[in-house]
């Protein structure tokens, strides 16, 4: 399995997930400076020309959330996702999609000081924080004591925010992010 990777990219999220799965994989370094992510051979893997991308034999996966869901299915022994048909499955899928469709763009608006137009399909950052606080409940993770790929996707967004120099400002969420960062295989930016 090959992870197309740059340490200053969202590929660190996919790497975190691979490590939590205990997967064996090869890192393929991609230079943004050299434009390797826009090279024809890379566009055959991810037509968007972005990181992360994963190749597993004849399978290619792009988009961080898709990679995390793929890996959770490939490594069931890591127990990082509710099983198909289980009552938690719907909420799990919802949180995975929410991470990139609502939380990430709302955080982007917040960090860039851009107004959030509701017609664009995502909430403002305050709304996203409210939603995550509700879903986190008493924690320690989104599914109580059970750490899942949803924590990788949702948590990595807040870790990302810290890289940009700010915290969520919500004590419950900030304590959650501290817990995620303290995990032995937790996400590292480099
Ligand atoms: N929604 C995508 C976002 C991917 C993305 O924007 N990756 C950035 C790096 S963090 C990238 O490759 N940017 C290079 C470019 O767009 O030219 C995902 O989660 O995979």
TrEMBL record:
Keywords assigned by UniProt? Answer: Transferase
Q: Name one GO molecular function term.
A: transferase activity
Q: Which CDD domains match?
A: GST_C_8 (cd03207), GST_N_GTT1_like (cd03046)
Record bears the keyword Ubl conjugation: no
Keyword check for Transferase: yes
Every GST N-terminal domain range = 1-79
The protein depicted here goes by the name Glutathione S-transferase family protein
């Amino acid at each position: 399995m090959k992870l197309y990777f740059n340490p200053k990219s969202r590929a660190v999220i996919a790497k975190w997930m691979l490590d939590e799965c205990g997967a064996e994989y090869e890192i393929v370094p991609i230079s943004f400076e050299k434009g390797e992510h826009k090279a024809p051979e890379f566009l055959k893997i991810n037509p968007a020309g972005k990181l992360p991308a994963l190749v597993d034999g004849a399978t290619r996966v792009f988009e961080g959330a898709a990679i995390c869901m793929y890996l959770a299915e490939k490594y069931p022994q890591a127990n990082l996702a509710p099983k198909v048909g289980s009552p938690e499955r719907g909420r799990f899928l919802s949180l995975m999609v929410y991470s990139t469709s609502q939380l990430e763009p709302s955080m982007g608006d917040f960090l860039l000081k851009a107004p959030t137009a509701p017609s664009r399909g995502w909430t403002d950052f305050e709304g996203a924080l409210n939603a995550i606080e509700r879903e986190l409940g008493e924690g320690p993770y989104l599914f109580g004591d059970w750490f899942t790929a949803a924590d990788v996707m949702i948590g990595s967004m807040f870790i990302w925010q810290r890289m940009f120099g700010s915290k969520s400002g919500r004590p419950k969420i900030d304590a959650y992010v501290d817990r995620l960062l303290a995990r032995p295989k937790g996400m590292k930016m480099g």
